[in-house]
Write a structure and sequence with these properties.
Blueprint (H helix, E strand, L loop, with lengths): L1 H18 L3 H12 L8 H14 L7
């Protein structure tokens, strides 16, 4: 049973990474590492900016 739970956790992690669940967390870690002491935008502001940038600069994407 422990092996099945571990596999399900790995699948959940992969799916979350694929869907972008960790983007904001990675952004915050990057900002703290490269720009210490500077303000970090909220998660809501981050996603709003990210989607606005994607709309202004369309790249190869499915939708």
């Amino acid at each position: 049973m422990g092996r099945i739970a571990a596999i399900l956790r790995q699948i959940g992690w992969f799916w979350g990474a694929l869907m972008g669940d960790d983007h904001y967390r990675r952004y915050v870690a990057h900002r703290e590492r490269t720009h210490p002491g500077e303000p970090v935008c909220s998660e809501r502001e981050y996603w709003r900016t990210r989607y606005a940038d994607a709309d202004r600069n369309p790249a190869a994407r499915c939708c």
